[in-house]
Write a structure and sequence with these properties.
Shape: elongated
Order of helices and strands: EEEEEEEEE
Strand content: over 45%
Number of helices: 0
Radius of gyration: 13 Å
Strand order of the largest sheet: 1-2-4-5-6-9
Helix content: under 10%
Number of domains: 1
Structural class: mainly beta
Length: 90
């Protein structure tokens, strides 16, 4: 999965990591996942692991990752969308 998310003065490029899902039907599942990410925050580039609730519909992924900022012990929230490039197993 490759996705992009944004928040207040925050932008990130995310890839799919491990996730736990509840399959609602063959095309729709909801879950919680980890997103290794490259981000831009206030003009500074970095890498961070985001944790997010996610909704997968066919090959589209909608997610809302949160990133922990150690220096200020705060969380940065964002929303995003991605695309899964693999074929669906039958």
């Amino acid at each position: 999965m490759l996705g992009f998310s944004f928040g207040k003065d925050f932008y990130s490029m995310n890839v799919g990591g491990p996730a736990l899902f509840l399959n609602l039907n063959p095309d729709l599942k909801v879950g919680l996942g980890a997103f290794p990410s490259l981000y831009l925050l206030n003009g500074n580039l970095g890498a961070r692991l985001g944790v997010a609730p996610r909704i997968d519909y066919k090959n589209l992924v909608f997610f809302a990752p949160f990133f922990h900022k150690e220096a200020s012990d705060t969380w940065i929230g964002s929303v995003g969308m991605g695309y899964k490039f693999h074929k669906k197993a039958k």
